[in-house]
Known about the structure:
The structure is a homodimer.
Chain A: E1 2-7, H1 16-28, E2 32-38, H2 40-47, E3 57-61, H3 72-78, H4 83-93, E4 97-102, H5 106-117, E5 127-129, E6 131-133, E7 139-143, H6 153-169, E8 176-181, H7 191-202, E9 207-213, E10 224-226, H8 229-255, H9 258-266, H10 268-277, E11 286-289, E12 294-297, H11 304-319, H12 322-332
Amino acid sequence: MIKIVVDAFGGDNSPIExxxxxxxxxxxxxxxxxxxxxxxxxLNNLLKEYSYxxxxxxxxxxxxxxxxxxxxxxxxxxxxxxxxVKGIVECKENDDIAGFISAGSTGAVLTAGFLKLGRMKGxxxxxxxxxxxxxxxxxxxxxxCGANMDTKPEQLEQFAVMASAYAEVMGVNNPRVALxxxxxxDHKGDIRCKEVFPKLKExxxxxxxxxxxxxxxxxxxxxxxxxxxFSGNVLLKSTEGSMKTLLTCLKTEIKSGFWSKVGALFMRKxxxxxxxxxxxSKYGGAVLLGCKKxxxxxxxxxxxxxITACIKQLYxxxxxxxxxxxxxxxxxxxxxxxx
Amino acid sequence: MIKIVVDAFGGDNSPIExxxxxxxxxxxxxxxxxxxxxxxxxLNNLLKEYSYxxxxxxxxxxxxxxxxxxxxxxxxxxxxxxxxVKGIVECKENDDIAGFISAGSTGAVLTAGFLKLGRMKGxxxxxxxxxxxxxxxxxxxxxxCGANMDTKPEQLEQFAVMASAYAEVMGVNNPRVALxxxxxxDHKGDIRCKEVFPKLKExxxxxxxxxxxxxxxxxxxxxxxxxxxFSGNVLLKSTEGSMKTLLTCLKTEIKSGFWSKVGALFMRKxxxxxxxxxxxSKYGGAVLLGCKKxxxxxxxxxxxxxITACIKQLYxxxxxxxxxxxxxxxxxxxxxxxx
Lengths: 339, 339
């Protein structure tokens, strides 16, 4: 039985959609056990509505909630009974738990992962790694997208190694790793890029293909994009933001005229296909790479399907022995794993 | 007569579209004189096809061309007869020339601007500042979008001051200045952001409204976005790239089915309106702020209309006394302008 803790009180649609997503996952996967972290009374009441194998589900009573509006560090320190802190501590204390999922406060999940769960041996800094769909139907990862500010070159090299292992476990053969930069020429970029470029080029345990410009993120030519947390965050959010802006604009324009509404009826399938192509939720959430257990951060707006996807993602990573692979790859790359 | 030098041999569609764009501009503006920099024989031959007031046009013979495929610094040093170097030197040596426009190599334009024309007194580093259309019909500037790597906090403060003056000259009243960051809270970001935030907040000569996330670039809530060159470049290129990806995807899907093609016919006006909304070229090009004369860098794919827009933009900036305004604003902000 693979055990996974799910934060039932994180995200805009919690707890109802989270519970539904967890139930769907255990009804699909026989050897999966979900531990729902949250207020026991509320959860027990919600669970009455579902039929499921009771041996596959349990509750970790954690009545406190950390919101997006409070300081993450302070919240993690004081709210010991919150679903995030108690859930992550539960992961740490039990060898048979594979990891933790939350659609709640990103800051709190990162802080609790870092402080309460701890880093894998040899990892300088854990990194947050989301997956995005590309134009060609493949996917691309950004590592790091904001867990770390003021990233050092050797940290960036570790991000490349960890994300490469992650991509392989998720089924990408010999993943193409690129460095986010302002141009594709080898010598481009700021001091950080210039320092990490030769390190990435010399590392024989990754398939480094050179620098990448932000405009080429979704071309399908890259599997892993290595970036400092600041620029990675800008890349992720501007990609999401400009697509959303364009689609909103399209929607507004369609609604504003009779003929465009008629046209949109004919194009329903087209719009649906595009929506499906760029549907981030089917890939699950962003993974915090480098902690002692697997942590998946779902989107704040996660619905039941996204939560199920996150659970399946964590299940696959555990099956694929991601933690062990990262550890071995870091060691091969010359980072001291056994201190 | 306002004189402007235009690089006739820069960009994908040079020299034909550049010449056409220049002719259109002088035919529209009576007190404008365009100096076309490029191979005299070719230009004279092209000009035969147009009717225009010959007092409004002259040629600066510059037979060499700097391409995008050569090192900018080396090219600027060796190709003294190139349209970019000779054009910019012409600006420097003649008080009655307002500035220079090129759709050619960005690196060469920046390098020549910096080395051959020189900075305004008090300016630490010139910054490249493009304008993008927003969802609400307004526009937003990014300063810097890649002229500088490893930007210092005091340079960022100057970018805010210079771009603010630019936005005002372009008709924005009390422009809202935001700092590109990973979150909107005051304390967010890397060391650079944390250091520049209080400087921006304390500067009484700009209207600083706080931190901005990359996803909100096109909301219309900001007029000027201050950023280090690396992240600004990522922001600009990922915005352009993801919009292009989405539109390409839409086009491919429309072409793939009969009914979607029918639907697209009904929606022609809608698509045209959206294309117009996000048409960058109508705003002209990116301005290199902080040099002794005005420099506008047009998009590499500029056509005649974009070149005309760049010329009108430079004309307006000159009319609005942008150089003088930047100088005065820098002085008020405590930067030593008179050395």
